[in-house]
Amino acid sequence: MAPRVDFAHFFDYLVLARVPLLDPIGAQPDELYTRTYGFGLGSIRGTLIHIADIEWGYVQRLLGRDYTREESPFTEARYLGLALFAAAWRAHEPTTRRALAGIDDPSRQVEYVSRNFSPPQRTRTTAGGVAGQLLFHEIHHRAQVMAMLRLAGVPVQDLDYSRLMWQRTPATE
After folding, report:
1. How many whole angstroms separate alpha carbon 96 and alpha carbon 55?
2. pLDDT band at 3 (very low <50, low <70, confident <90, very high)
3. CA 140, CA 120: separation in Å to the nearest integer?
4. 111 DSSP assignment
5. Which of 40, 132, 145, 150 is the most buried (most CB within 10 A)?
6. Which CATH number covers residue 18?
7. How far apart are the first and last CA of the chain?
8. 17 exposed, middle or buried (CB, 10 Å; 0-12, 13-18, 19+)?
9. Which residue(s) pair with 87 in the sheet?
10. Is 110 helix (H, G, I), strand (E, B) or coil?
11. What is the DSSP letter of 170?
């Protein structure tokens, strides 16, 4: 049997990295949050809400629930400003963490029909595959937000897993 992967631990890293990402955005004029860029989901707001929306959807898949896009609590129309969105995303963190911590068998089959494609597509994967995609998806789009911020003159860096999660102390030789 393969060793158990602690997906919730890796999610804890994402949650920790959200603070140094969101705080500098909140310290900027609202215009920065909605400024249009030619990549990602077009804006910091669009990209961040997309991350939360997809996270919510993958949690539904892990819980064995089918859903429609209209059911997602994370839409740009609902969260025009960063503060309300960030609060809603934080409120969803325990649900995501529980779903990831509850993966007892990463090889458990997960199958669903995605109506986000035309024509709809049947997806077959595993619970571990859904968890991995949830985690990697955020990192992918977080890099886009970081690039947008850098273009706006607000560099955010050092969000690497090893920087935030590993313990380091001065070496005494």
Report:
1. 8
2. low
3. 24
4. E
5. 145
6. 1.20.120.450
7. 41
8. buried
9. none
10. strand
11. -
Both tokens assigned to 67: 């859903």
pLDDT digits (tens, 9 = 90+) for 59-108: 999 999 999 888 999 999 999 999 999 999 999 999 999 999 999 999 99
Domain extent for 38: 7-165
- Evaluate whether residue 172 is within a structural domain: no
The tokens for 129 are: 């595959």
43, two tokens: 């804006």
Q: Which residues of 56-81 are buried (b: 16+ CB within 10 A; e: fewer)?
A: bbbbbbbeeeeeeeeebebebeebee
- What token pair was written down for 89? 């995303």
Residue 155 resides in a domain: yes
- Counting the structural domains of the chain, the total is 1
The pLDDT confidence band at residue 2, using thresholds 50, 70 and 90, is: low
User: 79: closest CA among 66, 62, 92, 98?
Assistant: 92
